[in-house]
Amino acid sequence: MKIHEFQGKQLFRQAGVPVLDGFVARTADEAAAAYNKLGGSIAVVKAQIHAGGRGKGTVIDNPSQRGVVLVKSADEARAAAAALLNKKLVTIQTGPQGSTVKRVFIEAGCDIARELYLGIVIDRATCLPVLMASTEGGVEIESVAEKTPELIFKEYFDPAYGFYGYQVRKLCKRLGISGDAAKSANKFFTSICRFFVDYDCSMAEINPLVITGDGKMVALDAKITFDDNALFRHKELLELRDWSEEEPSEVRASDAGLSYVKLEGNIGCLVNGAGLAMSTMDIIKYHGGQPANFLDVGGGANAQQVTEAFRILLSDPNCKGVLVNIFGGIARCTTIAAALIEASKTVGFTVPLVVRLEGTEVEEGRKMLAESDVNIISATDINDAAKKIVAAVK
């Protein structure tokens, strides 16, 4: 689950991670009032969307308008907010369609001496969280990772013990931090690592992380993603979820107990098991097709879930065919076959449908489909299925 920058900074403040004062605004007048409340000579108006790269992002119908704007008066804050609110902002992470800005965050300015990058993620190879820091703050970290990966420094830490002092000192040396800034870094790094663990984050990113003129380390950004599987421990976080920022079909699938991610291809995939779903997408690509989605119906899929899965797949106007790839383990092939037959009656298949069944009661399941009036293209294995659906779509 993702949250907005202003929400992340509220949590940072509670966790002892230094942030600047700021206010959220939904209208241009509220933005002007927020500037006056801050009481400083400068402020920053920031578009609030679930995507990074806002500083270099542009509004679709106004390419000169950036997603982050420095302002020096209430009138400038009002104008900047008006130019962003209810407009589509395109960044490196939104894709060309952009994301609609429904609120802005007006934040106090500060004396920036240096800009750094900081991010924490889970490294699945070591099964540990890793803190990444770089001197290249304020720019797309993806570009840094691609062109100059040696400028990204990593420190792994045990979630049970947190970030040790010697690790802080190592990072400070690599980043060229000394004096008061190093003292501030000790508290900052340990606090952000504890925050990451305590809230079961899957990612916490600050870009830029700044060092002020008086040697204070401050989070000028807050991009946070929580592990959905751990939200039962943090029910208060559910109130921070912004459903309007999420793909409607993915929300619909989540409500039905399905794991679904919308993609840009034209071949719908209905698979049981995340690993098999990934392999199915790979084999479709291998044979020249483009998957329209990732969809794992799980081992306990029933007729209702399969029917809803087809509704979601067929609601995508780009979907020109569907590949059903099922390995009957927990869910028997006969159960899936019965669900497919029921779904065809309820939904009606209007695009080519290729079905590959394997596993428990596979012969019985194939017989059920063959004797039904469902218009399907049978496949013997995953390669055969991929070839047939790519050919059918073409």
TrEMBL record:
<protein>
    <recommendedName>
        <fullName>Succinate--CoA ligase [ADP-forming] subunit beta</fullName>
        <ecNumber>6.2.1.5</ecNumber>
    </recommendedName>
</protein>
<dbReference type="GO" id="GO:0004775">
    <property type="term" value="F:succinate-CoA ligase (ADP-forming) activity"/>
</dbReference>
<feature type="binding site">
    <location>
        <position position="115"/>
    </location>
    <ligand>
        <name>ATP</name>
    </ligand>
</feature>
<comment type="function">
    <text>Succinyl-CoA synthetase functions in the citric acid cycle (TCA), coupling the hydrolysis of succinyl-CoA to the synthesis of either ATP or GTP and thus represents the only step of substrate-level phosphorylation in the TCA. The beta subunit provides nucleotide specificity of the enzyme and binds the substrate succinate, while the binding sites for coenzyme A and phosphate are found in the alpha subunit.</text>
</comment>
<feature type="binding site">
    <location>
        <position position="46"/>
    </location>
    <ligand>
        <name>ATP</name>
    </ligand>
</feature>
<comment type="similarity">
    <text>Belongs to the succinate/malate CoA ligase beta subunit family.</text>
</comment>
<keyword id="KW-0436">Ligase</keyword>
<feature type="binding site">
    <location>
        <begin position="329"/>
        <end position="331"/>
    </location>
    <ligand>
        <name>substrate</name>
    </ligand>
</feature>
<keyword id="KW-0547">Nucleotide-binding</keyword>
<dbReference type="InterPro" id="IPR016102">
    <property type="entry name" value="Succinyl-CoA_synth-like"/>
</dbReference>
<dbReference type="Pfam" id="PF08442">
    <property type="entry name" value="ATP-grasp_2"/>
</dbReference>
<dbReference type="GO" id="GO:0006099">
    <property type="term" value="P:tricarboxylic acid cycle"/>
</dbReference>
<comment type="pathway">
    <text>Carbohydrate metabolism; tricarboxylic acid cycle; succinate from succinyl-CoA (ligase route): step 1/1.</text>
</comment>
<dbReference type="InterPro" id="IPR005811">
    <property type="entry name" value="SUCC_ACL_C"/>
</dbReference>
<dbReference type="GO" id="GO:0006104">
    <property type="term" value="P:succinyl-CoA metabolic process"/>
</dbReference>
<dbReference type="GO" id="GO:0042709">
    <property type="term" value="C:succinate-CoA ligase complex"/>
</dbReference>
<dbReference type="GO" id="GO:0005524">
    <property type="term" value="F:ATP binding"/>
</dbReference>
<keyword id="KW-0479">Metal-binding</keyword>
<feature type="binding site">
    <location>
        <begin position="53"/>
        <end position="55"/>
    </location>
    <ligand>
        <name>ATP</name>
    </ligand>
</feature>
<feature type="binding site">
    <location>
        <position position="272"/>
    </location>
    <ligand>
        <name>substrate</name>
    </ligand>
</feature>
<keyword id="KW-0816">Tricarboxylic acid cycle</keyword>
<dbReference type="GO" id="GO:0005829">
    <property type="term" value="C:cytosol"/>
</dbReference>
<comment type="subunit">
    <text>Heterotetramer of two alpha and two beta subunits.</text>
</comment>
<dbReference type="InterPro" id="IPR013815">
    <property type="entry name" value="ATP_grasp_subdomain_1"/>
</dbReference>
<keyword id="KW-0067">ATP-binding</keyword>
<dbReference type="GO" id="GO:0004776">
    <property type="term" value="F:succinate-CoA ligase (GDP-forming) activity"/>
</dbReference>
<dbReference type="InterPro" id="IPR013650">
    <property type="entry name" value="ATP-grasp_succ-CoA_synth-type"/>
</dbReference>
<dbReference type="InterPro" id="IPR005809">
    <property type="entry name" value="Succ_CoA_ligase-like_bsu"/>
</dbReference>
<feature type="binding site">
    <location>
        <position position="207"/>
    </location>
    <ligand>
        <name>Mg(2+)</name>
    </ligand>
</feature>
<feature type="binding site">
    <location>
        <position position="107"/>
    </location>
    <ligand>
        <name>ATP</name>
    </ligand>
</feature>
<dbReference type="Pfam" id="PF00549">
    <property type="entry name" value="Ligase_CoA"/>
</dbReference>
<dbReference type="InterPro" id="IPR017866">
    <property type="entry name" value="Succ-CoA_synthase_bsu_CS"/>
</dbReference>
<feature type="domain" description="ATP-grasp">
    <location>
        <begin position="9"/>
        <end position="55"/>
    </location>
</feature>
<keyword id="KW-0460">Magnesium</keyword>
<feature type="binding site">
    <location>
        <position position="221"/>
    </location>
    <ligand>
        <name>Mg(2+)</name>
    </ligand>
</feature>
<dbReference type="InterPro" id="IPR011761">
    <property type="entry name" value="ATP-grasp"/>
</dbReference>
<dbReference type="GO" id="GO:0000287">
    <property type="term" value="F:magnesium ion binding"/>
</dbReference>
<feature type="binding site">
    <location>
        <position position="110"/>
    </location>
    <ligand>
        <name>ATP</name>
    </ligand>
</feature>
